[in-house]
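Customer escalation, tier 2.

The customer says the design service returned an amino acid string that "doesn't look like it belongs to this structure." They asked us to rerun it and document both sides in this ticket. The original structure tokens are below, unchanged.
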């Protein structure tokens, strides 16, 4: 399953030493601020075994327009403005279209 319009986001954020859990909590606040009808289909927040300060994000949206509208909304922007004091460096993001999506929970 994949719709030609599905939009994917992959990102990496590096927290200041010892601030990773605060960063994760703030990211969760941001996802919640977007609301249930934002067009965000699924997301994951991941940590690496060998890097205690790095957080990887994966998001799947119904389309780029839903992503843009949600991330520019005031509730999400208010959370986003709180991120910089927790970061050791500028976040990195990569964007694309989902080619294949498989949801094992619906089998």
């Amino acid at each position: 399953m994949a719709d030609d319009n599905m939009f994917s986001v992959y990102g990496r954020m590096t927290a200041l030493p010892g601030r990773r859990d605060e960063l994760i909590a703030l990211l969760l606040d941001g996802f919640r601020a977007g609301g249930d009808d934002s067009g965000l289909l699924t997301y994951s927040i991941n940590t690496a075994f060998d890097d205690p300060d790095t957080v990887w994000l994966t998001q799947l949206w119904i389309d780029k327009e839903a992503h843009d509208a949600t991330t520019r909304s005031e509730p999400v922007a208010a959370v986003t403005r709180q991120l910089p004091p927790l970061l050791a460096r500028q976040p990195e993001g990569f964007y694309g279209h989902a080619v294949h999506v498989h949801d094992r929970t619906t089998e």
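Tier 2 assessment: The sequence is consistent with the input. The mean pLDDT is 92. The radius of gyration is 14 Å. Sent an explanation to the customer and offered a walkthrough call.
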